[in-house]
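Reopening this one. Same input as before:
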Amino acid sequence: MAGKKNRLLYQLKVTLEDLQPPIWRRILVWEDATLAQLHRILQIVMGWEDYHLHQFEIGRHIYSVPDPDDDLYERKVIDESRVRLREVVPRVGTHFEYLYDFGDSWRHDLLLEAIVLPDLGVQYPHCLAGERRAPPEDVGGFPGYEDYLEALADPEHKEHENVLRWRGPFDPEAFSLTAVNQQLQKKFCSVRKKATTHPSPPENTPTDRSPDSALLLRLLIESGTPPKDRKRIRPDEKVSLELNDRERELILNHSFADEELTGRLRVVPRPNEPPVYRFTLDEWDELAGYVAAEANHSREKKLQKEWDQLYARIAGVLESHTDEDS
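Same output, byte for byte:
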């Protein structure tokens, strides 16, 4: 999505520690991304599969998903979903660490290289560059990965056939910048653009469960609101939607939405007044994209259902109005 006024981007260099030649990525993320959202971005750009636990170590603090067992081990963990990147990494040149998989212990050094302005028309988060593929999941950490590559490269090695059967062919030098950015765009793509790209689903084509694809396609087909019947409004005209306390709490505390949007949601309605909020279609589209991204990553069925329902309500606004020329 295009950048908002006064909202900045963090340029981060991500390097997987202890491996030579280095495996690294250079990425642009919003300064107000939560650490939980940064975790999801790192999983995509590094090629991990999010099977294991993770944590950020910044200064003397640990940020992760709190667990009741933390108290048993006297491990003080700060909830990563409530901490924004700019709050804990305020200065260019700051290093901090992202640890993924406590067994294999994949440690990533993150360096804030620059704070930059967004480019219009570029969707963020965005990967600028990178080299080499991350190791396979559960390979056994740094020593296990060395053994794996040795066995894979030598057809005469006693473990060669076993490692081939385990993961199939593996090229450690492979890295596709295009593929990474396509995955990022799939998670954070404009909802309205997706809707116009796919007016109807191909026959016999399975649909992705993520709300920014299957759900929106279903809404387009079943809502009974074909494009010609949508209410036409001015581009700067605002459309109202009532949001309950839980829906506002989800957007405010658990989504990627920037403060220019969420600031209006912090206004509490007067007594006996419905909590109605007004945004342009472009702004509703942005909110829908953030909601869809969270729904895509939610692993709790109840929370996933809440995100999906909120997404469907916002998508209904988008599909019943238009501010575009015929």
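So the earlier flakiness isn't reproducible anymore. For the record, The CA atoms of residues 13 and 54 lie 19 Å apart.
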